[in-house]
Each structure stands twice: as structure tokens, then as C-alpha cells.
Amino acid sequence: MAACIFISPVAAAPFEACVKGIRADVLKAGVRADIVNAAFSDIAFDEKAVRFSRTQPEYRLAIWDYMAFLVDDARIADGKKMMQAHEKTLRDIEKAYGVDRSILTALWGIESDYGRTKGDFFLPHALPSVACAGRRPSYYKGELIQALRIVAAGDVKLDDLNGSWAGAFGHTQFMPSTYRRLAVDFDRDGRRDTINSVPDALASAANFLRKSGWRSGLAWGFEVNVPRAYSGPVGRSRKSAILAWAKRGISRADGSPLPRTGSYGLIRPAGRAGPAFLVSRNLDALYSYNAAESYALAISHLSDRLDGRAAFRTPWPTDDPGLSRAERKRLQELLTARGLYKGEADGRMGPVTAAAIKAAEKQAGLKPTGRPGARILKVLAAKQ
Predict the structure, then answer these.
(1) Does pTM surpass 0.90?
(2) Is 354 within the bounds of a domain?
(3) Considering just the CA atoms, what is the radius of gyration of the chain in Å?
(4) What whole-number distance in Å separates Cα of residue 119 and Cα of residue 168?
(5) Statement to judge: residues 168 and 38 lie in one domain
(6) Local confidence band at 383 (pLDDT 50, 70, 90 cut-offs)
(7) Other beta carbons less than 10 A from residue 158's beta carbon
(8) pLDDT digits (tens, 9 = 90+) for 208-258
(9) Is residue 363 assigned to a domain?
(10) Contact 131, 125 (CB under 8 A)
(11) How far is CA 288 from the centre of its chain?
């Protein structure tokens, strides 16, 4: 359960009044009184959840930063181990839902690092706190109601409802409303438990993707070469038949032939100078899971790496590449050695780490950005 902070009596009054209203609405929604009483017992204002809901990033996360820490060597190696450990389960899910085992494993790896980081916010406290702080109150109250209905159905225990500040939980980070619609009991134990059951979690993700338009046997897409003078359509929604792309001079980056059939859109996530991809409707299904093309591309690329395919051939257009999680930890260790950082070297880049990086950049005569890149890591490592 996440640590919650009791606020002063003066500040607590509005929160207590808000919670009283939410509690009444939850009861009106038909959630059993015993579950409501247990969920709201000793409720406290979760200051950390509210802070996270309001936190703005210290710097805009470039696509090469995003890909560097989400698709790093450790996540690839761990994913291959997980595919072996859950080979039968993944094979059975693939047969039942038509979603590739490598895609499901990659999604699992991106969402919760294969179950290691499911979130530590206690949802019955975090969701009312965020709602009462004024951030989309109706939405978060609705997610709380759905979460408690999951408990009422006997799928999960109340004390197991830990997840992100926004309410996503379990191996594959379903929101409660999504869970209610699409979670499945794949291990046939009578409960849809995406928190403690890997089969249920992965099958539920497969069910989501299938309902979002995933087509069995169709690749998510592939890296391509684009003519320098290309001025045609760009965007995953602007799909054309593969023959049309061939006529525009598009070719596969690895030299293999284009598919004979299919409809694809061209995306250039870093602009004209970076890698380009032809993507199918299956990337759209991944986008439905989390509405960001960078997210969908990270899962897609990780799935390729789990299948033994190579990294992207075209480099990202930067002279300061992003860092893997191991490199981020090393950066924090170097910042600590210089007396600039006093937190844990865990690879997580929050405002404290960003401030330490800015201080190190200033000392090195670099523009202070707070961004964890290869340049500042190299500068600090050279001074050891």
C-alpha cells in the first residue's frame, strides 16, 4: 500500500468533505457497503499521487531517449527469458487470440518490466485524492467505482489494489474500467486476476488488442528507406496499398522485398532525418492501448528484438544519444560521487536527478538541460 500523508485539520476539511461525497456516490453506484467501508477506512490524502498528477517533465522526452531506456539490453534479455519461462502460456494465448507472443511479452515488459513495477499507489486512496484535487474528478471517481466492483466480484483482494497514481494496475496496467470490460480468466481459476496471474494478464492484453483491430499474422510494420526528395503522405492514418508505396520509391531498410499485399502508413517519428517506418493496422491496435506513437513503436521494436531481429538501421538524428537504464543508474552514481545527487541510484529520472544533471552541466560549461544523455555521462565518467 502506498504511503499516504495525513494533512493538517484546516487543509483536511475540504478533502474530508469531498471524500464523503465520493463515498456516497460509490454506494449509490451499488458497490457493497462492506467493501466501501473497508476501502474508505482510515483514508488519507495521498499527496504523492496528487504531486505526480501535476508534475510536468523537466525536459521534453525525445524519441531516442524514450527508446533507449525502454528497449535496452536488459529488457531484451529479460524478455527472452520470460518468453521461455511462459512458452506454453504464450503459445496458448496466441492460438486463442491471434496475437503474437513476442508482442504480448514486449507489452508486458514495457508496462511493468515483466511484473517488477506494477505501481505502489493504493487505488482506494490515490483515486479519491486525485479526484478531490480537481483533476478530472468524475473520471477518477468512475475508475474508483470500477476498481471496487472488481473487488466485489471476487477477482482481486482490496489490499492488492496497488498501481499507478492514475489507477492502472497489474502486470499489464489495465485501468479498472478496461479491466471490467476486457479482462479474462485464462487460467480458469474462477477469477480474472491480472495482478497475480500472468496467464490472465497476458490473455487480457491479447483480448484488448484483438478487440482493437489486431490482425493475426500481420506484421506491425518495418523500417524503410525514403527517397530524399519524397513529398508524399506521412502519418499512420494515411494508409496506402503496398504497391503505391513501392511506386513512391519506398524500400525496406534491410533490403528484403516489400510485402505483396497490405495497407500501410508511413511514420517518421524523428522527422526527415531519422528512421522511417511503414506501419500496419496492428500498430494502430497498440496505439489504442496507450495513445502515443512512441509507445506503440517501443513495443513493436522490443517485440522484434525478442524475435532476434536487428536494431534500427538508421540512427536517430542526435549527437547526444539517450541512455539505457543501466547507464542512467551509472549517471546517478557519478552525480552522487560529485556531491550533486543524494537520492537512490535507481535509474529513475525525476526532478531531483534533473536538478543534479543541470548542476553538473553548468560545472562542465554545457547548456543546463537536466536531460540524462550520453554527453554528460561521458563528461562525468572522464573525470573519475
Answers:
(1) yes
(2) yes
(3) 23
(4) 8
(5) yes
(6) confident
(7) 17
(8) 999 999 999 999 999 999 999 999 999 999 999 999 999 999 999 999 999
(9) yes
(10) no
(11) 12
Find where cell 533490403 sits: 255
Nearest-angstrom CA–CA distance, 220 and 289: 14
Of 179, 211, 243, the residue that ends a domain is 211
188: left (phi over 0), alpha (psi -120 to 50) or beta: left
How wide is the angle at C-alpha 357 spanned by C-alphas 353 and 359, nearest 5°?
115
Q: What is the pLDDT of residues 294-334, one digit of tens each?
A: 999 999 999 999 999 999 999 999 999 999 999 999 999 99
Final residue belonging to a domain, choices 168, 187, 211: 211
- Where are the alpha helices (H) located in the chain, listed in sequence order? 9-28, 33-40, 47-54, 63-70, 73-85, 87-97, 101-112, 123-132, 137-152, 176-182, 198-211, 242-247, 281-289, 293-306, 325-337, 351-363, 374-382
- In the numeric block, which cell numbers belong to residue 312? 534500427
* CA-closest candidate to residue 205, choices 59, 340, 99, 63: 99
- Tell me the DSSP string of 157-208: -GGG-EE-TTS-BTTTTB-HHHHHHH---TT-SS---TTT-HHHHHHHHHHH
In sequence order, what are the residues at sequence separation of 6 or more whose Cβ sits closer than 8 angstroms to the Cβ of residue 273? 317
Residue 225: what are its φ and ψ, rounded to 5°? -95, 135
235, 237, 242, 245 alpha-carbon torsion, rounded to 10°: -30
The domain that holds 151 is classified in CATH as 1.10.8.350
Please give the Cα distance from 131 to 144 (Å, whole number): 10
Collect contacts of 258-265 with beta carbons under 8 A, ≥24 apart: 259/219, 262/218, 263/239, 264/221, 264/239, 264/240, 265/233, 265/235, 265/236, 265/237, 265/238, 265/239, 265/240
In Å, the largest CA–CA distance within the chain is: 70
Q: How far is CA 346 from CA 67, 217, 328, 360, in A?
A: 18, 38, 8, 18
113, HSE (Cβ side, Cα atoms, 13 Å): 10
- Distant-in-sequence contacts of 191-198, Cβ < 8 A, 24+ apart: 191/154, 191/155, 191/156, 192/153, 192/155, 193/155, 193/156, 194/169, 194/170, 195/118, 195/156, 195/160, 195/169, 195/170, 195/171, 196/156, 196/160, 198/86, 198/89, 198/115, 198/171
Cell digits for 5?
A: 500523508
The total of structural domains in the chain comes to: 2
